[in-house]
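Dear colleagues,

I hope this message finds you well. In preparation for our joint manuscript, I am sending the protein-glutamine gamma-glutamyltransferase (Eptatretus burgeri) sequence together with its predicted structure, so that both groups work from identical material. I would be grateful if you could confirm receipt.
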Amino acid sequence: MCEHREGIGRFHYKPYDLLHHKPVFSSPVCYRSPRQDESFAVSVMSADLLRQKNGVEHHTDEYEGPHDVVRRGQPFDLCLQLSRPFVPDEDSFSLRLTTGKRPHVNKGTDMLLELSSSLPPRSWGVCVKESNGRSVTLTLSSPSDCVVGRYELAVGGPGNAEQYGNPPATTHAYILFNPWCNDDQVYMDGEEEKKEYVLNELGFVYTGTKNNINSRTWNFGQFEEGVLQACFELLDRAKMPVTGRSNPISVTRVVSAMINSQDDSGVLVGNWSGDYEGGTSPIAWNGSVEILRQYYGTRRSVRYGQCWVFSAVVTTVMRCLGIPCRSISNFESAHDTDSSLTIDAYFDENDKPMENLNEDSIWNFHVWNDCWMERPDLPRGFGGWQAIDATPQETSIGMYRCGPTSLNAIKSGMVYLPYDTPFVFAEVNGDRIFWLWKEDGAMERLGVERHAVGHNISTKAVGLNRRQDITEQYKHPEGSEAERSAVNQACQHGSKATLLKSDSPSDIAVKVSTDEQAVLGSDFTVDVNLCNTSAKERQVNITVQVLVDYYTGVTKGECKLKRFFMKLKPKEDQTVHLPMLHSEYLHLVNELCTMTCYVTGRVLQTEQPITKRHSFRLREPELQILCPQRAHVGEDMSVTIEFINSLPKMLHSVELRVEGPGFQRQHIVKLGNLRPGEKLQWQEVFQPVRPGIRKLIGSLTCKQMVQVQGEAEVEVV
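The corresponding structure tokens are as follows:
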């Protein structure tokens, strides 16, 4: 039974005279039942969508702000307060739901619902659930494939659409996708999976290198105030037809385009230059909430983002709309620019990479998204996880977007299935081909690296704060017959199918290693091991080059180059050591501390080429966040943040950012300069606003500093 209450979540309607269809703003909605005279006319005084009850049942009770939120394909309740007691056999109601700027009955955006004895299956409907005096609770149903969006609702007399008034701006509800509904295209089995991929506000994005993976805590914050409106603003600014918003395939494709600003004034401006004047460095962001709020508030693209920021914002938008979503990190991720499904690397006769020709690249890591849905547009078996990518790399039908593409299609090499499967296939399973560009313009194929890309494909584990390796969901085991078959099938649809040939095994095996615990600002050593796998002595000339590069594979500068001559007896291996002083690399280092070692050369007796690429990163200093283990909603909690500048140089224009879902909006503190060895200690008082296990996330940035992040977990009661 519902109660008449004042407050957020209630519908108060602008009444109309139900006999003459004239606006009457001085009285409630009023009509006469069939056998009543004027003295018994009934009025609808107010309507309440029972926000708490519906919210718990629809898993939408965490959404902040003055909006009622429910999910499609699942009944929800509406409580009416009348001017007199309800008479079941005589009184009746009609409800009108509309969505979009131009609602239309034929487009499923304007629905007139008559009161019935029961709810129709898989359709719009309304019936009386219970009544008690002047209080009547109605139950409404919506189809599992209805348009998602903001709906306006009006109550009137039976069968007369003219009796509907225009409700005030706050008299609306959002209807979202429903992974809990068996008939919804985004239905997901498994309660823990839905908790992770729809309801979890915190997670991780993974960066670094395949041998040294870095975990960044991220505040997705899909329930924070303003985020829901920003998500639908995205679809509006994309000019997406309202009728298309019932289909998660269409919605994810639009979102993948609108998160970047490349050609549609989307959310984020991409910037990989290292110069972030006029905006925020990508490494400074700890969450999506402030990005989306800024975009919604200013109606302008936010500066700046890189791949993990694009992906994290996509995760926020999808989870907010009700589509299960996860951020995916692929290490040694290929960027194929010519649809060859191979990654071509060119070297000159001095064994140096030719930057002007190397349009294809291998990123140390790349982050995109998987969204869960059925694919009725594809053959059976290609539903489930679908990859989408919002980072603007290549165009898809004229726009910078990618996906959705079925993981099963990627794994099997069926690159002809939509959307953009060839590009994603190359990212995780392309072969790297090395070429020698001679002075006379001729090219010689040096070799092929079969297992160069697609390592340690990662996402956050369900229900656990650790990384899960999902490489097997994207590709068969490296070198297996199934994996080679998938590559062969995919490359037959590429632009260079004839290049896919086998190479003779090399006599020399190369391994490159570095100390994965080496910290930025310290000295370290690059070790190159060569093993003669043949039964004869081999003499080799090799060049070892160490570069500082961006994680996208673009070179920033050379640190060291050294050449070696080695004699190797049969089955012998030798290691050369290349010491790296901090003075040789620190002035070049980028914000993610990534570096690459190239080993190139030849076996003198056989002219066999030697090629090896090894990416690594240096560990960054740590940020410590100290706070009590338990706090109370609405009560002050003291937090101390500490950092020591371990670098042998001054840090200028230091900024600290702190935030946490249900805890603290992003707070920026400007701290000035920090001398070498100086300890920073900052204290602040916060007030938690929502109970539960919460996290505070902090990041420290400056003009010279790489990514520095810390976190602390608090139980809020």
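For the figure legend, we might mention the following. Residues 307-321 form the longest helix (15 residues). The two ends are 29 Å apart (CA to CA).

With kind regards,
E.M.
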